[in-house]
């Protein structure tokens, strides 16, 4: 019997504040913009907002580079605005989960300014400093956003580690003072009344202290993952965090766990609750990789996707809790990637994807705009991109002659994080109603058709379908707690499964293709249809992108 918890029964909505709603015309989304749209979120029916970082930041990586954990980014407003958002959200029965970015800080954080100032500064060991090796970098690791993971600092003649950009130096979690600072800061936010943490790359906080070279896969730099992800002391550190912070409150916690395996996830998200509530794993969004990692235009195959999703369903059963997501601020739009964003099939296939994800076991996450079926933006020019990862990758691979510019532009269209970061499409007025000013990144030109106002007015919209999926989850315990059993696990066209609870059985069948497929799983005249993206069905068939959910009597 599964232990019950509010966060297992909840649906989470991720907000990327910079792109959600601009309240003061500077072209940048902000906290007051979010507060102004709480009615919309309450109508959708979600329980929790996960707020991407809103802390003080010089925005080298849109807030994932924090210079003060106890203050708000100027672009987004003030602490008063935050307190009002929190209170208003609670009044709307919506909880707020904060992004916690503590693998690294900004290089403009006071700790790093102190740390780099001299070798004997009390903050020196807050970060990871190494002497040059034969006059060069301490090892061959490449940073996620290009270049070496080591930056030379003239002042003291040593290198510091940055797994992301050079403005994101990694904290040294080996130092107990760093852990004290982080846990104090977390308790400070908890005392404010926040409802949980999404923990950025938390699987990377414990590094192999021998810092060995990594395997060179992209022709340029060594891969640090085996020595950084799920490192030797990560579970110890999280257990300490749990006993010193998390266990004192009733929180939703989700760890972003790059490179996590099933065995590791069973520890991070164990049912005894000694570490975190759940983790984000990335196998299903990283399943197509080319010679230069994620940069490819190959589409994922249904069979591979289903294999990974089902594996996580089976292997965490009774041991740990799953998170469910297809989209976030680092991923292209789900309907463009896993389904079909053409005019003909966008709506029906977005609903199919939603059905497939939301009927699985775990806590579902909706990324802003996913509930509208927002699509990739397909920028034609590099100048349209804003994302540090996309721009740096273009230069790293194209300027080095490893990839042709036109190929890289095609990969960006498919995979760039900016596909998720174009402004939320509120209505068909200028800039999609996102801002009265000039948006910091271009609006997707399809906003005239795809927007919240149109969706709210249309009973058959993707929005209303999500609303119904959420309502079902809130009403039927089988959707939350039912055991998962895969069906048709050899199919190349259909994703189907059952959920089972206390003698009740629910069947889900989703056609991932634009062709009609044979399928008899839903031919049970005594069953009740819970939801479908088609009004009429064809006996023994699933129509293009058809999804059906039935509850057997
Ligand atoms: O992302 C971690 C991470 O692994 C990403 O760099 C991921 O590899 C990439 O975005 C997709 O290929 C987290 C945040 O979600 C991301 O926005 C930050 O840029 C990053 O950490 C650094 O804080
Ligand atoms: Ca603004």
TrEMBL record:
CDD domains: AmyAc_SI_OligoGlu_DGase (cd11333)
GO MF annotations, alphabetized: alpha-amylase activity
Gene3D superfamilies (UniProt xref): Glycosidases, Golgi alpha-mannosidase II, Oligo-1,6-glucosidase, Domain 2
Keyword terms of this UniProt record: Glycosidase, Hydrolase
One BP annotation, GO: oligosaccharide catabolic process
Transmembrane domains' residue ranges: none
Domain Glycosyl hydrolase family 13 catalytic: 14-421
SMART domains linked: Aamy (SM00642)
Coiled coil (UniProt feature): none
Pfam family, one: Alpha-amylase
Similarity section: Belongs to the glycosyl hydrolase 13 family.
NCBIfam families xrefs: PRK10933.1
Name by which UniProt lists this protein: Alpha-glucosidase
């Amino acid at each position: 019997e599964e232990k019950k918890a509010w966060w297992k029964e909840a649906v989470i909505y991720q907000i990327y504040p910079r792109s959600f709603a601009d309240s003061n015309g500077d072209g940048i989304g902000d906290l007051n913009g979010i507060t102004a749209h709480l009615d919309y979120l309450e109508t959708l029916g979600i329980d929790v907002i996960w707020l991407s970082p809103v802390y003080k930041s010089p925005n080298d990586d849109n807030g994932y580079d924090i210079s003060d954990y106890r203050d708000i980014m100027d672009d987004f407003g003030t602490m008063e605005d935050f307190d009002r958002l929190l209170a208003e959200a609670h009044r709307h029965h919506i909880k707020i989960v904060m992004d916690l970015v503590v693998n690294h800080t900004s290089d403009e954080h006071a700790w790093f300014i102190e740390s780099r100032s001299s070798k004997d500064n009390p903050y020196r060991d807050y970060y990871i400093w190494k002497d040059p090796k034969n006059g060069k970098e301490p090892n061959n690791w490449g940073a996620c956003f290009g270049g070496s993971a080591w930056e030379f600092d003239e002042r003291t003649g040593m290198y510091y580690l940055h797994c992301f950009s050079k403005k994101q130096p990694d904290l040294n979690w080996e130092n107990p003072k760093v852990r004290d600072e982080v846990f104090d800061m977390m308790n400070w936010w908890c005392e404010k009344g926040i409802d949980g943490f999404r923990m950025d790359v938390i699987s990377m906080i414990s590094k192999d202290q021998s810092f060995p070279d990594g395997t060179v896969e992209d022709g340029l730099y060594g891969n640090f993952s085996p020595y950084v992800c799920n490192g030797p002391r990560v579970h110890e550190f999280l257990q300490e965090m749990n006993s010193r912070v998390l266990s004192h409150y009733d929180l939703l916690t989700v760890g972003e766990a790059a490179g996590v395996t099933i065995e590791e996830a069973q520890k991070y998200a164990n049912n005894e609750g000694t570490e975190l509530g759940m983790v984000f794993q990335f196998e299903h969004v990283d399943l197509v990789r080319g010679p230069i990692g994620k940069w490819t235009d190959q589409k994922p195959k249904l069979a591979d996707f289903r294999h990974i999703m089902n594996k996580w369903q089976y292997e965490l059963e009774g041991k740990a809790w799953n998170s469910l997501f297809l989209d976030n601020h680092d991923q292209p739009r789900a309907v463009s990637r896993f389904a079909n964003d053409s005019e003909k099939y966008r709506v029906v296939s977005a609903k199919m994807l939603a059905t497939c994800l939301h009927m699985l076991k775990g806590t579902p996450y909706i990324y802003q705009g996913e509930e509208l079926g927002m699509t990739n933006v397909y920028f034609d020019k590099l100048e349209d991109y804003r994302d540090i990862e996309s721009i740096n990758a273009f230069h790293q691979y194209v300027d080095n002659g490893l990839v042709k510019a036109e190929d890289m532009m095609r990969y960006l269209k498919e995979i760039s994080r900016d596909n998720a970061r174009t402004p939320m499409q509120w209505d068909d007025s200028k800039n999609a109603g996102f801002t009265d000013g000039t948006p910091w990144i271009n609006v997707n030109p399809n906003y005239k058709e795809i927007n919240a106002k149109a969706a709210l007015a249309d009973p058959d919209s993707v929005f209303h379908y999500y609303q119904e999926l959420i309502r079902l989850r809130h009403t039927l315990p089988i959707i939350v707690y039912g055991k998962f059993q895969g069906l048709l696990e050899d199919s190349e066209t259909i994703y189907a499964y059952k959920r089972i609870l206390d003698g009740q059985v629910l069947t889900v069948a989703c056609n991932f293709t634009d062709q009609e497929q044979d399928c008899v799983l839903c031919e049970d005249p005594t069953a009740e249809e819970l939801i479908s993206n088609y009004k009429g069905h064809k006996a023994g068939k699933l129509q293009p992108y058809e999804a059906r959910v039935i509850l057997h009597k």
